[in-house]
Amino acid sequence: MTHLPFIAAAYALAIGVPLAFAVNAAWRMRAATRRLAAIDPRRQRAGAA
Amino acid sequence: MAPSSGRSLHRFANPGRFLRLSGAVLPWLSAAAVALIALGLGWGLFFSPADWQQGDAVRIIYVHVPSAWLASSGYFALAACSVLSLVWRHPLADLAAVEIGPVGAGFTAVCLATGSLWGKPMWGAWWVWDARLTSVLVLFFLYMGHVALVRAFDDPTRGHRAGAILALVGVVNLPIIKFSVDWWNTLHQPASIGLTSAPTMYFGMLWPLLLTAFGYTLAFAAIVLARTRAAVMERRIRGLLMARAASDPSA
């Protein structure tokens, strides 16, 4: 394959950048869900019922 | 727009309804995005033919063109959210705009970097001050300006309004990006795919490009949806903590 280093770098960026955003979003959602479950009275009532 | 349209828009402003709907859609959207991107990149990398002039470097278009498409369409989505925010005071539009900004900037950076990685072996230069490249660089700065501006105020409402105005002013750059290759004599080639004309690409190259473009579009939507879900929950957390602090100042 010609120009392999250029192709590999382009694909690494095109996979790595969206993956980093996706992992960050999943981590934020998970942290917010846990925090909300701990302090939201509506969720606590729903959990106790 | 008719008042009923404004009401229907605000039906989706309910955070609980948004969290329920987005929670149902997000896993399917993410799975479809991963499948399409994997199929498109695999096809483009291993099964599509090399170009007779560019050699295998043509395979960079399967990641460059989708990121360029999302850089522009992401900014259009940012501007649409800004209109919803300024005209209808739609609360989720503000949050979505804040979350689109960094993702759009990321895809614009990927577009510029992958274009540079294609340009070095093909043009012999990492960068040229070509009208298309320069207008996309301006788009990147507009995204970064929006990211900085919405976070520059103590009062988030003022930040959202300033960001919305900047986003709307920056929309003028989108037609400049699109038509720069027609208006000026640029090194960047004109579009190979258009809505009004048949594609000028070989179908063995067109299909993987369409797959990756559609897959990355779904991925962009899934990332923004997930970030907006997190932002809605974080706003609720801040509200609860402030209410708790107000009701119990000693805590």
Explained architecture:
- The complex is a heterodimer of chains A (about 50) and B (about 250).
- Chain A has about 50 residues and is mostly helical.
- Chain A has a domain at about 20-50.
- Chain A is about 90% helix and about 0% strand.
- Chain A has helices spanning about 5-40, 40-49.
- The radius of gyration of chain A is 20 Å and the shape is rod-shaped.
- The model of chain A has no long low-confidence stretch (mean pLDDT about 90).
- Chain B is built from 8 helices and no strands.
- Chain B is globular, with a radius of gyration of 21 Å.
- Chain B is an all-alpha fold and about 250 residues long.
- Helix content of chain B is about 75%, strand content about 0%.
- The interface between A and B is medium-sized, with 29 and 41 residues.
User: Distance N terminus to C terminus of chain A?
Assistant: 62 Å
Helix run count of chain B: 8
Q: Tell me the major beta sheet of chain B.
A: none
Give the CATH class of chain B.
Answer: Mainly Alpha
Structural class of chain A: mainly alpha
Would you list the SSEs of chain A in sequence order as H and E?
HH
- Report the largest inter-chain contact: A-B, 29 and 41 residues
The beta-strand count of chain A equals 0
Note the beta-strand portion of chain A.
under 5%
> Roughly what is the average pLDDT of chain B, rounded to an integer?
90
* SS elements, strand count of chain B: 0
The major beta sheet of chain A can be summarized as: none
Number of domains of chain B: 1
Distance from first to last alpha carbon of chain B: 48 Å
Helix % of chain A is over 70%
* Gyration radius of chain B, rounded: 21 Å
The chain-level structural class of chain B is mainly alpha
> What is the annotated CATH architecture of chain B?
Up-down Bundle
CATH fold annotation of chain B: Four Helix Bundle (Hemerythrin (Met), subunit A)
Cα gyration radius of chain A (Å): 20 Å
- Per the principal axes of the C-alpha atoms, what is the gross shape of chain B? globular
